[in-house]
Design brief:
Blueprint (H helix, E strand, L loop, with lengths): L1 H46 L2 E6 L5 E3 L1 H6 L9 H5 L7 H17 L3 E5 L8 E7 L10 E7 L1 H30 L4 E4 L5 E4 L1 H6 L5 H7 L12 H11 L3 E9 L2 E11 L5 E7 L1 H23 L3 E5 L5 E4 L1 H6 L4 H4 L5 H10 L9 H9 L9 E6 L5 E8 L5 E7 L1 H22 L4 E5 L5 E4 L1 H7 L3 H5 L4 H8 L11 H10 L5 E6 L5 E8 L5 E7 L1 H51 L7 H30 L7 E4 H18 L3 E6 L5 E4 L1 H17 L6 E8 L3 E8 L6 H5 L21 H11 L3 E7 L3 E9 L3
Parallel strand pairs: 22-24
Antiparallel strand pairs: 1-2, 1-5, 3-4, 4-5, 6-7, 6-10, 8-9, 9-10, 11-12, 11-15, 13-14, 14-15, 16-17, 16-20, 18-19, 19-20, 21-23, 24-25, 25-27, 26-27
GO molecular function: kinase activity
Catalytic activity: ATP + protein L-histidine = ADP + protein N-phospho-L-histidine
InterPro entries: HATPase_C_sf, HATPase_dom, His_kinase_dom, HisK_dim/P_dom, HisK_dim/P_sf, PAS-like_dom_sf, Sensor_HK_Regulatory, Sig_transdc_His_kin-like_C
């Protein structure tokens, strides 16, 4: 039994040893694996950027020296209290935050994240704490990882500052968009309205932005390709901003908007609308104004050409083309400024210059001129003068105006010549002239004016007033007191614009005729003409006229006396001839009877001439009687008296009396004699078969008597002397009447009644005499 027991025990011992060996080997293998794992974990932990610290439930700390260095400790802190005291190595704020966070994690298991900084260090540590895992065998403890977050913290701070800046900028931009007076909006990638500002809400007459977005109220009318979404779709798809002018109704008014759509990075689009209604109206007005201005420039006589900032011709009027002989087809191609000058030179419409390129370069500088309009005078070949005005335009370009001053230059030259001629003439006139201004000062005078008054040049050069001049020349007059008339004359001419004239005598016996004439410019012209010789001639002519009048009176008296004296023997001759014809001295032979008839005829003619002579002299002093005279009766009586003579000569006498003849106030006898004399003159100048017409008519104011014949007519010389007394007018008609007073007697009677008499005659056609009498002379 003992052996069995010993064997059992030995077997148990061997079994236990084997188990023990197996367990040892297994533990050894596990220890080796754990060592390897530990080494790997330790290597990983060493290579990790994070450092770990374990805080036990009782506040003890487990950490390595590198972490203690990071925390600003030269020694190894043993407990949580060491981290919170003043010598913890951390900044006071950092230490408090870390201790409070760890304490909260120990008590409530609350994880934390915080940033700590060692005192005097630029590094920041990012601490992440949480409950310690069970593997650490620290129940209730906290595992804290520390990361070097210096770079991250700076970047976070930078990003935070940038984010704050962006947030402020975004808020400012949002405020700006909201306060913008123009409608602005944002569309998402589906082109739906996602945001609008207050101006947009007011423009579409909505309550608020939410209503606009909910109802998708569009600002601009229209759909399809011309609608507001079309421009936004193009901007979204092409990535290019779009601008379009679209009409819209805002506050009940039709407005024109310029809509801008801009693509955004998120696939949406932003837009805003500018009210350009006033701008479009102003542009339309500007366009119409420019068209009206160009139409007006086209009607100017001066040539006008406008060049754009690129120096091309953009406008010209017709006178420009005519002045420089340029065809419209060539000008329509908008030639450049230099080409236009070259074409002007080819047409010889530019001044002749030696250095044409330099001259052209100077004119090219007109586009950049800053002193305003530039003016030049161009003297062209052929005598043409052009006034050239170059005006740089504010928006760039140049406006040229070409005014043809040829006629003005010629007129100015002629005017200068006329002024020189006038000055020379004025200074060499025989008449003394002086021009006085409105204030009475002497302005202009000629040499004769200085000589007449005996004035010196120094006195005249001082332009004396007319009062001083009158006082200076008073002693030169025969009556010094009349010198006061000179200022009065000038005053009448300058102030009252009235002309005055008169005469005065000088102390030396000369006589002058003066006149003050108002001039168009307000001045007065004083003229003085020496009439000493004409005055003497006038006196001589007056004396001669008186002598002639006396001789005429003697002649008239002599003619009247002779006429009366001739009538007595003429009566005796007529009486004896009639006795012989009656046979008182016996029966006459045929020749004796013919001689007796000739004597009686001559006596009759001589008696008529004597009667006419007596009438001519008597009517000069006999007044005209005033009575109502029927012109029909006068004409009939005169025609009846002349009819016998007309029948004897074989002449037809016709009488036409119109109902308008009427009556007039006058002397019936003298009017009848005047008509009779005209009939006698007409009948006496005709041969057998002739015709005489007496015509009478009139109107309410005047009466007319016409005597015409178809005789041989009168020469121009005879017509000129027809109404002269004792002119041999009859001899120019038929040669039978060597002397006739018919026409002078008729004229005398007509003029005594205030009428006129006119004679018209043509050789081979006849003669017409017209009497025009007023109804009431």
């Amino acid at each position: 039994m003992a052996a069995i027991l010993s064997g059992v025990v030995l077997a148990l011992l061997v079994g236990a040893s084997a188990w023990m060996l197996h367990a040892g080997l297994s533990a050894r293998r596990r220890a080796a694996a754990d060592a390897a794992s530990f080494a790997s974990l330790n290597a990983t932990l060493s290579a990790s950027p994070a450092l770990a610290m374990v805080v036990r439930a009782d506040g003890r700390l487990l950490l390595d020296q590198p972490l203690a260095d990071r925390l600003g400790r030269s020694d190894m802190p043993a407990s949580l209290a060491d981290l919170g005291n003043a010598d913890s190595g951390l900044e006071p704020g950092s230490a408090d935050r870390l201790v409070d966070a760890i304490t909260a994690a120990l008590r409530g298991g609350k994880p934390f994240r915080t940033v700590v900084r060692a005192t005097g260090s630029a590094r920041s540590l990012f601490a992440i704490g949480e409950r310690a895992p069970a593997a650490l065998n620290t129940p209730g403890g906290v595992l804290v990882w520390f990361f070097d977050a210096t770079e991250f913290h700076d970047e976070i701070a930078t990003l935070g500052a940038e984010a704050e800046e962006y947030r402020a900028a975004f808020e400012a931009l949002s405020s700006l968009i909201e306060a913008a007076p123009m409608p602005m909006w944002y569309r998402d990638d589906s082109l739906r309205l996602a945001m609008v500002n207050t101006a947009y809400v007011r423009a579409v007459d909505a309550a608020d932005a939410a209503e606009v977005i909910a109802r998708q109220v569009e600002l601009v009318e229209g759909v399809g390709m011309g609608g507001p979404l079309a421009s936004a779709a193009i901007a979204r798809d092409t990535g290019q901003p779009q601008v379009a002018a679209m009409p819209a109704t805002i506050n009940g008014e039709r407005r024109m908007l310029r809509v801008h759509d801009m693509p955004l990075r998120d696939g949406g689009t932003g837009g805003f609308a500018i009210d350009v209604h006033e701008i479009e109206e102003a542009r339309g007005k500007l366009k119409r104004s420019r068209e009206a201005q160009r139409a007006m420039l086209d009607r100017l006589s001066a040539g006008v050409a406008q060049f754009a900032p690129d120096r091309t011709l953009v406008f010209y009027n017709q006178p420009f083309g005519r002045t420089f002989a340029m065809k419209p087809e060539w000008l329509a191609d908008r030639p450049e400024f230099d080409r236009v000058l070259d074409r002007m030179r080819e047409a010889k419409r530019l001044p002749e210059v030696r250095d044409f390129p330099g001259w052209k370069a100077e004119r090219r500088d007109w586009f950049r001129a800053a002193e305003g309009a530039i003016e030049e005078q161009w003297h062209l070949p052929g005598g043409t003068h052009l006034r050239v005005v170059a005006q740089p335009l504010p928006e760039g370009g140049l406006l040229l105006i070409f005014e043809d001053r040829t006629e003005q230059v010629q007129l100015a030259s002629a005017r200068d010549t006329l002024l020189r001629v006038r000055t020379a003439t004025f200074d060499n006139l025989f008449e003394a002239l002086g021009v006085f201004a409105a204030d009475g000062r002497l302005q202009i005078w000629n040499a004769k004016f200085r000589q007449v008054w005996g004035l010196d040049d120094a006195f005249l050069d001082s332009h004396p007033r007319v009062d001083a001049l009158a006082e200076r020349v008073a002693d030169s007059l025969a009556s010094p007191g009349k010198a006061a008339l000179i200022p009065e004359l000038v005053r009448f001419a300058t102030q009252q614009r009235m002309q005055r004239s008169g005469r005065f005598a000088m102390a030396d016996g000369r006589h002058y005729e003066f006149g003050a004439v108002p001039l168009p410019d307000g001045n007065a012209l004083l003229t003085m003409l020496d009439i000493s010789d004409s005055r003497r001639m006038e006196q001589a002519l007056r004396d001669r006229n008186e002598a002639l009048e006396a001789a005429d009176r003697v002649k008239t008296a002599f003619v009247a006396s002779m006429s009366y004296e001739l009538r007595t023997p003429l009566t005796s001759i007529k009486g004896f001839a009639e006795m012989l014809q009656a046979g008182y001295a016996g029966k006459l032979t045929q020749d004796g009877a013919r001689y007796t008839d000739a004597i009686l005829e001559s006596v009759e003619r001589l008696g008529g001439l004597i009667d006419d002579t007596l009438d001519l002299t008597a009517n000069e002093t006999t007044p005209v009687a005033r009575a109502t005279v029927p012109l029909k009766m006068i004409a009939t009586e005169a025609a009846d008296a002349a009819r016998a003579a007309a029948t004897a000569r074989g002449v037809e006498l016709a009488v036409e009396i119109a109902p308008t003849a009427g009556v007039m106030l006058g002397d019936a006898r003298r009017l009848r004699q005047a008509v009779g004399h005209l009939l006698d003159h007409a009948i006496g100048g005709l041969r057998q078969g002739g015709r005489v017409l007496l015509h009478v008519d009139g109107d309410a104011q005047r009466a007319r008597i016409v005597v015409s014949d178809d005789g041989p007519g009168m020469s121009k010389d005879a017509v000129a002397r027809a109404f002269d007394r004792f002119a041999q007018a009859g001899a120019t008609r038929v040669g039978e009447r060597a002397l006739s007073l018919d026409l002078p007697l008729a004229r005398q009677a007509v003029e005594a009644h205030g009428g006129t008499i006119e004679l018209v005659s043509e050789k081979g056609v006849g003669t017409l005499v017209t009497i025009d009498l007023p109804r009431e002379p």
